[in-house]
Give the backbone structure.
Amino acid sequence: MAGAAPAVSGGGYEASFGAYGQARAATATPRSMEYAAFGRVTGALTKVATADDLSATAAALHDNLKLWAALAADLAGDGNAYPESLRAQLISLAAFVQRHSRAVLAGQATVAPLIDINTAVMRGLRGADAVA
Protein backbone atom coordinates (compact mmCIF):
# COMPACT_ATOMS: atom_id res chain seq x y z
CA MET A 1 0.00 0.00 0.00
CA ALA A 2 2.95 2.31 0.48
CA GLY A 3 4.17 3.97 -2.68
CA ALA A 4 7.55 5.03 -3.91
CA ALA A 5 9.45 7.84 -2.27
CA PRO A 6 8.31 11.31 -3.32
CA ALA A 7 10.45 13.07 -5.89
CA VAL A 8 12.55 15.90 -4.49
CA SER A 9 14.13 18.28 -6.94
CA GLY A 10 17.82 18.89 -6.64
CA GLY A 11 19.84 16.74 -9.01
CA GLY A 12 21.91 14.11 -7.21
CA TYR A 13 19.86 14.38 -4.04
CA GLU A 14 16.76 13.25 -5.94
CA ALA A 15 18.53 10.15 -7.23
CA SER A 16 19.89 9.34 -3.77
CA PHE A 17 16.50 9.79 -2.15
CA GLY A 18 14.86 7.57 -4.76
CA ALA A 19 17.45 4.84 -4.18
CA TYR A 20 16.90 5.11 -0.43
CA GLY A 21 13.15 4.81 -0.95
CA GLN A 22 13.59 1.71 -3.09
CA ALA A 23 15.87 0.10 -0.50
CA ARG A 24 13.45 0.97 2.29
CA ALA A 25 10.53 -0.48 0.31
CA ALA A 26 12.47 -3.69 -0.28
CA THR A 27 12.96 -4.20 3.47
CA ALA A 28 9.59 -2.90 4.69
CA THR A 29 6.98 -5.32 5.97
CA PRO A 30 3.42 -5.17 4.66
CA ARG A 31 2.26 -3.96 8.07
CA SER A 32 4.88 -1.21 8.21
CA MET A 33 3.82 -0.08 4.74
CA GLU A 34 0.16 -0.08 5.82
CA TYR A 35 1.14 1.89 8.93
CA ALA A 36 2.95 4.45 6.78
CA ALA A 37 -0.03 4.75 4.42
CA PHE A 38 -2.41 5.28 7.33
CA GLY A 39 0.02 7.81 8.76
CA ARG A 40 0.02 9.81 5.53
CA VAL A 41 -3.76 9.92 5.12
CA THR A 42 -4.36 10.54 8.82
CA GLY A 43 -1.90 13.43 8.72
CA ALA A 44 -3.80 14.92 5.78
CA LEU A 45 -7.13 14.49 7.60
CA THR A 46 -5.69 16.12 10.72
CA LYS A 47 -4.45 19.04 8.65
CA VAL A 48 -7.91 19.72 7.18
CA ALA A 49 -9.78 19.12 10.46
CA THR A 50 -9.52 22.78 11.40
CA ALA A 51 -9.24 24.25 7.91
CA ASP A 52 -12.09 25.74 5.96
CA ASP A 53 -10.89 24.41 2.61
CA LEU A 54 -13.38 22.14 0.86
CA SER A 55 -10.91 21.24 -1.89
CA ALA A 56 -8.24 20.10 0.57
CA THR A 57 -10.85 18.26 2.64
CA ALA A 58 -12.17 16.48 -0.43
CA ALA A 59 -8.62 15.47 -1.42
CA ALA A 60 -7.84 14.14 2.07
CA LEU A 61 -11.13 12.22 2.15
CA HIS A 62 -10.47 10.81 -1.31
CA ASP A 63 -7.04 9.51 -0.28
CA ASN A 64 -8.49 8.02 2.89
CA LEU A 65 -11.28 6.33 0.93
CA LYS A 66 -8.78 4.88 -1.55
CA LEU A 67 -6.80 3.41 1.33
CA TRP A 68 -9.88 1.91 2.97
CA ALA A 69 -11.13 0.52 -0.37
CA ALA A 70 -7.78 -1.20 -0.93
CA LEU A 71 -7.85 -2.54 2.62
CA ALA A 72 -11.43 -3.82 2.23
CA ALA A 73 -10.57 -5.53 -1.06
CA ASP A 74 -7.59 -7.23 0.57
CA LEU A 75 -9.66 -8.27 3.57
CA ALA A 76 -12.34 -9.77 1.32
CA GLY A 77 -9.79 -11.87 -0.56
CA ASP A 78 -9.32 -15.55 0.08
CA GLY A 79 -5.61 -15.15 0.79
CA ASN A 80 -6.06 -12.82 3.76
CA ALA A 81 -4.69 -14.41 6.93
CA TYR A 82 -6.61 -12.31 9.47
CA PRO A 83 -9.30 -14.13 11.45
CA GLU A 84 -12.71 -13.92 9.82
CA SER A 85 -14.22 -11.92 12.70
CA LEU A 86 -11.49 -9.26 12.47
CA ARG A 87 -11.88 -9.12 8.70
CA ALA A 88 -15.63 -8.56 9.08
CA GLN A 89 -15.09 -5.80 11.66
CA LEU A 90 -12.58 -3.99 9.46
CA ILE A 91 -14.83 -4.29 6.39
CA SER A 92 -17.65 -2.78 8.48
CA LEU A 93 -15.33 0.07 9.42
CA ALA A 94 -14.54 0.59 5.73
CA ALA A 95 -18.27 0.93 5.04
CA PHE A 96 -18.60 3.42 7.90
CA VAL A 97 -15.65 5.42 6.57
CA GLN A 98 -17.40 5.62 3.21
CA ARG A 99 -20.71 6.80 4.70
CA HIS A 100 -19.08 9.23 7.09
CA SER A 101 -16.92 10.73 4.34
CA ARG A 102 -20.08 11.56 2.38
CA ALA A 103 -21.51 13.23 5.48
CA VAL A 104 -18.33 15.31 5.88
CA LEU A 105 -18.53 16.48 2.28
CA ALA A 106 -22.19 17.40 2.81
CA GLY A 107 -21.21 19.52 5.82
CA GLN A 108 -23.07 17.24 8.22
CA ALA A 109 -20.07 15.78 10.07
CA THR A 110 -16.42 16.37 10.91
CA VAL A 111 -13.34 14.33 10.05
CA ALA A 112 -12.63 13.65 13.76
CA PRO A 113 -14.15 10.12 13.79
CA LEU A 114 -12.13 9.20 10.69
CA ILE A 115 -8.94 10.38 12.39
CA ASP A 116 -9.85 8.35 15.49
CA ILE A 117 -10.52 5.20 13.46
CA ASN A 118 -7.29 5.52 11.48
CA THR A 119 -5.31 6.17 14.66
CA ALA A 120 -6.79 3.05 16.28
CA VAL A 121 -5.87 0.99 13.22
CA MET A 122 -2.35 2.42 13.34
CA ARG A 123 -2.05 1.42 17.01
CA GLY A 124 -3.11 -2.09 16.06
CA LEU A 125 -0.62 -2.25 13.22
CA ARG A 126 2.18 -0.95 15.43
CA GLY A 127 1.28 -3.47 18.15
CA ALA A 128 1.25 -6.26 15.58
CA ASP A 129 4.75 -5.24 14.43
CA ALA A 130 6.00 -5.18 18.02
CA VAL A 131 4.78 -8.74 18.48
CA ALA A 132 6.08 -10.01 15.13
About this structure: Confidence is low (pLDDT under 50) at residues 1-17.
